[in-house]
């Protein structure tokens, strides 16, 4: 398979290649090198990019539905407005990536690294974020309704105005996290660490907080 003169295959070297608006549906790019590549508005739905190097690549408004990025290096990738619905990103490195306004509904981000990532206004409904690293991540206005976040690390993350209703956060680390005006209705925060977190004007109606460490250092009953 060739696209824009480039051979599309596992292990392909495609650094700085231009695939703007290209059709790469179900392409197999396992372990390919796409560092700095332009994939803005490209269709990669169902594609396989496991262990691919996508550092600093551009995927603005790209269609990545059901794509596989297991253990891919996506450090600093621009995914603004991308559609990652049901994408598989377990173990992927998305440190300092831009996912502003992206759709990650139902995505698998188990053990993914999202430290310092921009997820402002992103849709993460029903996403799997178990043991994901979100230290310092920017999640203002993000929708995390019913997200699974068992053991997730969100130290100093910004979740102002985020929707976490029905989210599952037992044992999550939320030390110093900004949850101002966040919606935590019916969220499971059993055993979570909320030390020094900002819960001002947050909605905790129906939230479970058994043995949670509260912002003032006390342990909830």
The biggest sheet, with number of strands, parallel, antiparallel or mixed sense and barrel status, is: 2 strands, antiparallel
Q: List the total number of helices.
A: 0
Helical residue percent band = under 10%
Which regions are unreliable across 5 or more consecutive residues at pLDDT < 50?
Answer: none
Shape estimate: elongated
What is the CA-atom radius of gyration, in angstroms?
18 Å
Structural class: little secondary structure
Order of helices and strands: EE
Structure, explained:
The chain is mostly loops and about 220 residues long. The chain has strands spanning about 1-5, 5. The protein is elongated, with a radius of gyration of 18 Å.
């Amino acid at each position: 398979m060739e696209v824009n003169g480039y051979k599309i295959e596992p292990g392909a070297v495609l650094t700085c290649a231009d695939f703007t608006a290209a059709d790469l549906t179900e392409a197999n790019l396992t372990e390919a090198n796409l560092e700095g590549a332009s994939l803005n508005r490209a269709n990669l739905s169902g594609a396989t990019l496991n262990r691919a190097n996508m550092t600093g690549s551009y995927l603005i408004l790209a269609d990545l539905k059901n794509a596989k990025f297991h253990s891919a290096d996506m450090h600093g990738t621009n995914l603004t407005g991308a559609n990652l619905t049901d994408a598989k990103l377990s173990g992927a490195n998305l440190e300092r990536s831009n996912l502003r306004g992206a759709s990650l509904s139902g995505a698998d981000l188990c053990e993914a690294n999202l430290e310092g990532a921009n997820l402002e206004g992103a849709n993460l409904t029903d996403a799997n974020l178990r043991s994901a690293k979100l230290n310092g991540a920017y999640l203002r206005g993000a929708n995390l309704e019913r997200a699974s976040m068992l053991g997730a690390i969100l130290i100093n993350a910004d979740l102002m105005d985020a929707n976490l209703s029905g989210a599952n956060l037992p044992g999550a680390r939320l030390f110093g996290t900004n949850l101002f005006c966040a919606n935590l209705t019916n969220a499971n925060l059993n055993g979570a660490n909320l030390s020094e977190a900002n819960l001002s004007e947050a909605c905790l109606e129906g939230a479970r907080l058994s043995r949670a460490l509260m912002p003032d250092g006390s342990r909830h009953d």
